[in-house]
Amino acid sequence: MKKIVLLNKKRLKTILLFPFSLFVLYLAYVFLIPYALPMVSRQNRLVPIYYVETSDKKVAFSFDASWGAAYTPSILEILRENNIKTTFFLTGFWVEKYPGMVKKIFDEGHEIGNHTFTHPHLNSLSEDQIKEELDKIGQMIRDITGKQPDLFRPPFGEYSNKVVATAKKCGYQTIQWSIDSLDWQELGKEPMIKRVTENLHPGAIILFHNNGEYTAEALPEIIVYIKEKGYKIVPISELLYKDNYYIDSNTGAQILKPGRS
Known about the structure:
The protein is of the alpha/beta class. It has helices at about 10-45, 70-80, 90-95, 100-105, 125-145, 160-170, 190-200, 215-230, 235-240, and strands at about 50, 60-65, 85-90, 110-115, 150, 175, 180, 205-210, 230-235, 245, 255.
């Protein structure tokens, strides 16, 4: 004799809802988790300053110096003639080779930043090794100029939480750029001018190199364009907010906190 099992409505509803709930959890796992995890990761991500969010028409020029100095006197002359102060990020072996040029850059009113001693891939180094890279060149710059640098640009634009956090412990604000002139590719004067002028924006940090073959040739036209558009060119430290700010972990924008001025 067959048994007939009668289910009440509540139990039947529970049984039917169970596979549906499993299906919803599966969809969440497949479609939501992959997006949620990067969002959490981004919230914990330390990033350098790429640019400053501002309505003021100000930009900063920066020059990385690692190899050679043949074009540096011409660059300094152009900056002097236009009454422009900028930021130079120097490596240790460049400082060792050109101490007189370091002093000249500083004496002409330009800001000097730390670009590590040996220009290594910092992500492959330990915290102690990163600290040694920063401390050694920092001391060299201080010995020549009498001033301790407080801005740092990682070689190759390569960084991680470890790099940014270690730099901060050493007293440095880590700086990237929002406009790359690509002068290091030596594509010619006109491509450099086009790249910088077409991407110009308030709060931009523009990357040049002290020994790019066409950098000195392109600078006068770039400067004229920027000034005609009503912009002022300043060192990076004059562009940055000093306090009451945060750095957007997606864009690298330094943003003033609401209600602050």
